[in-house]
Amino acid sequence: MEYTIQKLAQMAGVSTRTLRYYDEIEILKPARMNSSGYRIYGQTEVDRLQQILFFKELGVSLEEIKKIITSPSYDETKVLKEHREQLLGKRKQLDVLIDNIGRTIDTMEGIRKMTDKEKFEGFKQQLIDDNEVKYGKEIREKYGDEVVDRSNEKLKKMKKEDHDEVSRLAVEVQDTLEEAFQSGDPSSDIAQKVAQLHKVWLMYYWDEYNKDAHAGLAQMYVDDERFKKYYEKKPGMTEFLRDAIFIYTGFAKNN
């Protein structure tokens, strides 16, 4: 079955402007243009739009989506299965938070008591599940299930004051990185302070410190757009952080 741009937009719940933009950036081209110059979409385009919207729901950028769906190795069935697992993970997150809210309401109404630890269990589980959905596959392939599972267990046991401190550290890493980036020298004292702060932040999640793993993580920040987006406040900032960590860990000297 074929659809005009208006009919496809209405069916998919997007605007015609969105579809025109997708055409412009060549992520979703129409099957053809009719004699009147209107875009016409067929089944292939309908299926691709569904995939694009799946990825967007999972927070993937359009730039990254384009790379994925235009890759010669793109496997639609495999991707759909991965979508299903990720959406099931999101549903699990919501279930945990809904349960946490319910117990909080019960506490406020005097039905039960809720410990301070319980108040934050839902949020910690959500963070774990978020990380699994966004980065789980890559992290597990790189470090192995055992390392990731130990890290998750450490996060579950994190106290409120530790959670507050790790959140503060994350901000300090970012602020110090922006200051260090101005120097242009990843070996400078301020840049090495960033690497040290990053290590301290990291150890709230890791069981033990490993220089090679730290350097590998820094490289992953550069290689993976999802990680890079977090640190890339200015062009080149993520590479600067990687280089600073390479120097800090001695990785640059040994490789």
Question: Would you kindly provide a written description of the structure presented here, covering whatever features stand out?
Answer:
The chain has 255 residues and is mainly α. The protein has three domains: 3-69, Multidrug-efflux Transporter Regulator, Chain: A, Domain 2 (Orthogonal Bundle); 76-156; 160-254, Antibiotic binding domain of TipA-like multidrug resistance regulators (Globin-like). It contains 13 helices and three strands; from the N terminus they run βααββααααααααααα. The chain has helices at 5-12, 16-24, 43-57, 62-69, 76-108, 116-143, 145-156, 160-181, 189-202, 211-223, 225-231, 237-249, 251-254; strands at residues 3-4, 32-33, 39-41. Strands 1-3-2 form a three-stranded antiparallel beta sheet. A hairpin with a 5-residue loop joins strand 2 (32-33) and strand 3 (39-41). The radius of gyration is 23 Å and the shape is globular. The termini are far apart.
| CATH class bucket of the largest domain | Mainly Alpha
Could you tell me the mean pLDDT?
82
Name of the CATH superfamily of the largest domain: Antibiotic binding domain of TipA-like multidrug resistance regulators
How many alpha or pi helices? 13
Number of domains: 3
Beta content comes to: under 5%
The ordered string of helix (H) and strand (E) elements is EHHEEHHHHHHHHHHH
Shape: globular
The count of β-strands is: 3
Helix content: over 70%
CATH architecture of the largest domain: Orthogonal Bundle
Biggest sheet strand line-up: 1-3-2
Which structural class is indicated by helix and strand composition? mainly alpha
Major sheet summary line: 3 strands, antiparallel
